[in-house]
Design goal:
By secondary structure, the chain is α/β, with parallel strands linked by helices. It contains five helices and six strands. The chain has a six-stranded mixed sheet with strand order 3-2-1-4-5-6, sandwiched between helices. Helix 3 packs across helix 4. The N and C termini lie far apart (about 35 Å).
Amino acid sequence: MRVYITLLGRSVWALLNCYYAVLKEKGYVPDVIYVIGEDLFGESMQKAVKGLEILSEGFGITPAIEEIVVREARFVEAGTRISSLIRGLRESGCSIAIDITPARKALVAAALLSLSRIRVDHVFYLAIREIKGMNLPYEMIPKQMQSLKDFEEEVRRKEGALAGGNH
């Protein structure tokens, strides 16, 4: 089973655009999506879920979508919830991708620190050169202004190059 975890922050567009890019450019099609967000962004959660449903439908898929709400700026609590989720998914044999693009720093740090003990398959980040005026759908942002990164893939590629003697 393929799982996509996305961390909700201030911008629903950031969340939706990275998901779109992952579907279109990486072909990572999830069976389940977990949206993890701080209680501060409660109103945005429903918009994010609806947007994920619309995008998924556009790609002909219907993943289950689960919402997880953590308290604002509770770094340890968020890290514990995320690591527990990922550990359980990994033990079930799931392929796991996590999107850190839309979240605030504390939630991203909590997620990444939890990953130091449990490896995931992908860590996606949609880099946008300039954020002013970028609350637009993915296809409306000029391609030269954005780049989808997979940090986990880049690390594996670098480790492979080092192991092969290509310094």
